[in-house]
Amino acid sequence: MARSKSRETIVNEIAALQAKLKAHDKAECERIGQLAIKAGIGSIDISDEALTQEFQTIVTRFRAANPEVAQPKAKGRRGSGHTEEGADDQAA
Fold first, then answer.
1. At 19, which helix (H) or strand (E)?
2. Structural domain harbouring 32
3. Sign of CA dihedral 48, 52, 53, 57
4. How far apart are CA 11 and CA 17, in angstroms?
5. What is the per-residue pLDDT for 41?
6. Are residues 5 and 27 in the same domain?
């Protein structure tokens, strides 16, 4: 059986994905922050703990209204927990 990828290649791919995730999170922080400022949160006196709790309440409310968002569904055989015989660790 031939090696599909070297360890170094996989480590580099992980680093690239972590950088992509960091950029995504930063963009989401900026978007949510801008929406919060637009809604007037910046002008109220509220502790970080209280604000975090209110954000959690919002998340709970929207997840209850849209249960398909609460639990991401696996797509394809890699995310389903099932692998075909001989299909593990092969490059896509």
1. helix 7-39
2. 1-43
3. positive
4. 10
5. 92
6. yes
